[in-house]
Amino acid sequence: MEGSIHVDSLGKTYQIPLREPGIAAALASLIRPTYAEVTAVRDVSFAVQSGEMVGLLGPNGSGKTTTLKMLAGLLYPTSGKVEVAGSVPQQRKPEFLRSISLVMGNKTQLTWDNTVHDSFLIHKEIYGVSQGAFRTRLGELTEMLDLAALLPKQTRNLSLGERAKCQLVLALLHNPRILFLDEPTLGLDVSMQIRFRSFLKEYNRRHGTTVILTSHYMADITSLCRRVILINKGTVFYDGDLSEMARRTAPFKLVRITNQGDLSGPEQTHLRELLERLHIVEQEQRNVTFRVERSQVVPLLGPLLNAGSMADVSIFDPPIEAVIDTLYQGVMA
Amino acid sequence: MNWRGGIALVGKTLFSYTSSIGFFWTLALGWLMGPLIYMFVWLAASQEGPIAGYGQSDFILYYVGLMLVNQLTYPCSHWTIGESIQSGTLSVWLLRPLAVLYEAVASDVALKVVCFPFVVVIAAGLGFLFHIDPVPWSRVGPFLVFLVLAQIIRFMFAYTLALLSLWTQEISALLKVNDTLVFLLAGQMVPTVLLPGMLGELARLLPYRYMLGFPIEYLTGQLTGSEIMFGLRMQMGWALVSIVVQQWVWQRGIRHYTAVGG
User: Fold this and answer.
1) CB contact under 8 A, A102 and B95
2) B261 domain residue, yes or no
3) What ipTM was assigned to the predicted interfaces of this complex?
4) Ranges of chain A with pLDDT below 50
């Protein structure tokens, strides 16, 4: 209950001003402004259990960030019901706000002119964290993210990655039961992204914090979330296991072979005949990548190895980016 | 009430402002210029004799008082609140278990703490220069009450206007209009008791005089007992109205917040 989320037929419609180009239209809009209604979230329903890590995915403008903001109590829903940690988010009761954290990759809650440690102390006071609990949590988080050297620095003097780390620690100092992460690794380099992910995984394991994550980096999703909710045009079109989604959307494996000789040579006739019957994805010199139905991979291996003089064979799942792209293209078509 | 959080916010803003104290003292110097200029204008105008009961020493006392009261009641946070709503920074404040109002109050309190010593030094220097007689101690208590009420009214009006950003994209012009009305009707350009006819009557009824001029008029001993009681009732009434209107605007406006960015 304390870390669970229930969303039922959630909807959010914005009214935005419209105007034709030019000075005449600008003057006319003063007298008679025109508005258009934009539905950002149409009908979203899902439930998240305490301790789950769920990825909220969707193309740009799909409604995922709007959904996240409604879950965090920043936006009033136009329709539907939301319950987060037993509270209605938009009522913004102090006990609700103490039980959540929202980390936005493009906004910081650290105070620009203050030191990181001062920002943490202010957070402690605002959330009413006891001195003992603060010391314990700060110690744990500082150690996990190797933060000690950053504490006496002013926020303005931190690099993007350092600021992101401090921002995450700040968000966790009051021990929220639910953590909303909106593009938390935005702009971070690859090694910082990896550290972030391993930290979040470990933190979730230790504390059982519910995590809802949006990210355009698929590596964030694949390494952290077993379950994904895909949103497009404000509605959920997939909610379930990430690997199952990949299997359903792309029910094939990719096989990449590297032949010892040139594929155009006369001794490669058998291999060429075999490849002609397959769905080739990519071909360059001695390397060929093709897709094969999952059930056909093993039966194909024998004839394949006999057909040519193989230097290497790799079998792998299609990249998750390609799976998601296939899904997006499918639903947007 | 989250006092602990509120005090922490004041501390945070204070740390932040003290790192740019030169900027804030320059700002305070700018705010002093207006009263100083009007003081010299009225001193020149009253050379021939008192104007509506105001002699030269009264004008000096009035404008030195105005420097202090203006500094203590001038709210700055409404400019940043409006900008925060439009840029989406308000989201950060909305996530805290603390009313957004705390951020604005903390910002104003910190600004006063940073700027007030500078203003006091200037005002004391002027008092010494012009040989201002000390104000009787008996006036200090009621003056502080009027000062707090003036702060509430002035802050709440500006803050409520800033909250209109929740509906519209640009409110800085409205905030400037409000500042102009304060300039005309609160007793900055001219003590409100000197405003003629209908304008004077309007100033007595509108909230602006009770944001600034009334506490100074009391401090300088220009008001009769019945005028003081009338002023107190008006201050209490406007303070109540401003708080109720602010709550009403916030409750409705926050439903329109779009949390842009991110």
Assistant:
1) yes
2) no
3) 0.80
4) none
